[in-house]
Design brief:
Blueprint lengths: L1 E4 L23 H4 L4 H32 L3 E10 L2 E9 L6 H18 L6 E6 L20 E10 L2 E11 L3 E6 L2 E6 L3 E6 L4
Parallel strand pairs: 1-4, 3-4
Antiparallel strand pairs: 2-3, 5-6, 5-9, 6-7, 7-8
Length: about 200
């Protein structure tokens, strides 16, 4: 069973595309297993592999639907709200995205997921524009935003910090560079927990 949620008015936004590299933050499982570190590591690897398989399958189901409506798949996330999974899909186009387009994508993606039983059990499906303060799913998406401010959060501390704020100066396939108060810092994308555009009103 799927529960649909449509975006609020004014959510639709602007440009580019690529696919997400999602992360599953369960490193704590390495320490919680009484059977020992090895068992915890095996479980962690197994969960990550299952997570990656689910993301790959969902991408195969979502991307063709989004393209069929002349839109771009900006990215998607899989979260949890209580016992229910939450799938959030972000779509975009050079001309922006409206609520009707989001509703069409939601209906067709939901049908694909139901037919393929890609997400067992009840889940919530949300489709919206990435918005003005969009989250980046790949450093390649940053090319169109060089010179703009972003907030960055890391999985692990760098120089005893996990949070950074600065201006994008360059972006590559798997890394990007930030200017923070005159200091240039290069980030490997694998270290990124969240990179979000800052919109100055």
């Amino acid at each position: 069973m799927v529960e649909y949620k449509l975006p609020k008015l004014g959510v639709a936004g602007s440009t580019p595309v690529t696919r997400s590299k999602a992360y599953f933050g369960t490193t704590a499982c390495l320490f919680r297993f009484k059977a020992g570190w090895a068992l915890g590591l095996t479980f962690f690897i197994g969960v990550c592999m299952a997570r990656n398989d689910l993301e790959k399958r969902l991408h195969e189901l979502i991307d063709p639907v989004v393209e069929s409506f002349g839109l771009d798949l900006w990215g998607f996330t899989i979260g949890q709200a209580g016992h229910r999974r939450v799938l959030k899909i972000y779509v975009d186009s050079p001309n922006g995205v409206n609520i009707d387009q989001c509703a069409q994508v939601s209906r067709h993606v939901g049908l694909n997921i139901e037919v393929e039983d890609a997400i067992p059990g009840a889940y919530t499906l949300e489709v919206s524009s990435p918005g003005l303060e969009r989250v980046f799913f790949s450093p390649l998406q940053m090319h169109a935003y060089i010179g703009r401010e972003i907030d960055v959060k890391l999985h692990e501390a760098l120089n005893e910090r996990k949070s950074f704020h600065g201006t994008i100066t360059s972006a590559a396939d798997d890394s990007f560079t930030l200017d923070e108060n005159g200091e240039r810092i290069e980030f490997d994308w694998q270290l990124i927990k969240r990179a979000k555009l800052v919109h100055n009103f």
